[in-house]
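// run 5 | inverse folding | seed 20
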């Protein structure tokens, strides 16, 4: 008995493109490296400014109600401020070089 093998559509055909035509590229992949670097650093600045606003909001809430215990909302604001500040400073300092490959020492590589 001979089994007939089904043809698997290519990636561009699976997305609805005509056969033989390459898949469309994402617009960001056509940008030069310096433009990507500026965009990533600007997003880092945006995250830092959001962190500053969240910290100011949390400070205003906690100053108006002295000796109050933290509510889940207060902890959520603090978590958002910490995460956006951490990610923002990382993106602002590294920029596009965040995608650079990192060499791993031999002792950490898997031995097969």
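// decoded
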């Amino acid at each position: 008995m001979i089994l007939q093998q089904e043809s698997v559509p290519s990636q561009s055909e699976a997305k609805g493109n005509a056969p033989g035509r390459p898949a469309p590229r994402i617009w960001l992949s056509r940008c030069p490296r310096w433009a990507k670097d500026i965009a990533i650093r600007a997003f880092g600045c945006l995250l830092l400014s959001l962190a500053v606003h969240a910290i100011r909001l949390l400070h205003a809430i906690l100053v108006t109600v002295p000796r109050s215990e933290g509510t889940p909302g207060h902890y959520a604001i603090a978590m958002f401020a910490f995460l956006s500040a951490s990610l923002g400073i990382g993106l602002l300092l590294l920029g596009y070089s965040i995608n650079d490959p990192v060499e791993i020492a031999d002792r950490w590589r898997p031995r097969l």
